[in-house]
Amino acid sequence: MEEKKNVLVIDDESIIRDYLKEILKRLGCNTDEAVNGKEAIEKIKKFEYDLIITDIRMPEMNGMDVLKEAKNLLPDSEVIMITAFGTIENAVEAMKIGAYDYITKESSLDHIELIIKKTIEHQKLKTENRILRNEISGIYGFENIVGRSAKMQKIFDMLKTVSESSASVFIQGPSGTGKELIARAIHYNSPRKNNPFIKTNCAALPEGLMESEFFGHDKGAFTGAIKSRKGRFEAAHTGTLLLDEISEMSPGLQAKLLRVLQEREFERVGETESIKVDVRIIATTNTDIKEQIKKGKFREYLFYRINVIPIYVPLLRERKKDIPLLIDHFINKYNEIHNREIKGISKEAESLLLRLDWPGNVRELENRVERAVIISKDPILQVRNFLFEDDGFDELSEFHSEDTQMTLRELEKQQILKTLKNNNFNRTKSAEILDISVRTLRNKLNEYKEKGELDPCFLKEN
Questions:
Q1: Domain identity same for 82 and 121
Q2: What is the pTM of this model?
Q3: What is the tens place of the pLDDT at every residue in 128-140?
Q4: What CATH number has the domain bearing residue 108?
Q5: What is the pLDDT of residues 431-456, one digit of tens each?
Q6: Beta bridge partner(s), residue 259
Q7: Residue 450 CB neighbour total at 10 angstroms
Q8: 300 and 171 in one domain?
Q9: Whether 46 and 124 share a structural domain
Q10: 240/172 same-domain check
Q11: How far apart are CA 300 and CA 305, in angstroms?
Q12: Which of 314, 331, 366 is the last residue of a domain?
């Protein structure tokens, strides 16, 4: 059942108050009344009203003063002014400073009811939008970018500063690392958060339609253009435009994009009139952009224009300290989505997930945890919940049941030696990937050597 709206009626004439309360009662509202402005303000300080209807001319405190104080105390409430014929100019002035609409004492019952209905619908829509914005802010808050590793902490520190500006941001990193989540977090924590966030996947757009998609087109500009259409830039005006996988953009469109970023204006396809835009650009790529520049596939000047604030999102295997946090985060997330009550993950299962390289990065881990949450018959996720013979996940299929007796020290040793081997025994690079110091890595190797657990090939340093 829809919640009733709370309405305060303010007028020094009882007949007007009763008249309005009768209309509001028919509309299903809860009503309260005040005979003057001072009484009204005392009530507004104690109670929350969705709608306030106030006369302009009242003794002691007029309706304009009530309006100003009401908007200060209850900024989300709407105000309708009541005016006599000779004070309509005052009502119009009141709308300039925050009133939603006005009614005259000479208005018909139907007209007054229509104005009140319209105002209540507007207030309802505004409330729903506010709730939606709060939900979006929760979804894309910085707290949902999970990580305590040194690399992720650097990103967090940067995001808090970056979000306050309108500078272009270039997010680089492999697929599945969370680049889009970071882009959305920047937008929804910025002064532009109430304005559009438009995502464009440059890799998914047909090359022939890219220019029209970005800049829009005029009716008849090309075959099939049966009406004029806004492009992504126009749609993102005063907001943020995410150019996902910008490295897939054609060289010709790169040149046009560079001009838009420099001039802050563009023309629709088939038109000559320029359109001014205020758009923040966030671009992403999963390729080595500098290599693309060397090959002539990406314009160097465009790179400099979008790379004002560079962010590199590391591979999941380069931030393994974050895996336990991510597992907990995804368990909580999918408990809520799938109405499950998983309490956590066993030490053996967590150790299993920690030893893997995760070529699909955070996205792959999230998919694994979601599936485990859905299929688990126990409140604690076990190794068996992550084993699927037919999905090509070779590293998991190698984890036999007897391996559940493996100690954490053995798992750690396996991971250290595997990382060293994969990086051609380069200790500096391996330590960085393992998120430990070179000194700690050296001490671990010396420990394995003293216990006769180390192949001589691991003793060389690169």
A1: yes
A2: 0.58
A3: 666 555 555 555 5
A4: 3.40.50.2300
A5: 877 767 888 888 888 888 888 788 77
A6: none
A7: 9
A8: yes
A9: yes
A10: yes
A11: 9
A12: 314
Choose the final residue of a domain: 390, 406, 422. 406
Distance CA 336, CA 450 (A): 49
Facing residues of 103 across strands? 82
- Provide the residue range defining the domain that includes 263: 147-314
Radius of gyration, CA atoms only, the chain? 31
Same domain, residue pair 301 and 321:
no
Give the whole-angstrom CA distance, residue 294 versus residue 296. 5
Is residue 141 in a domain? no
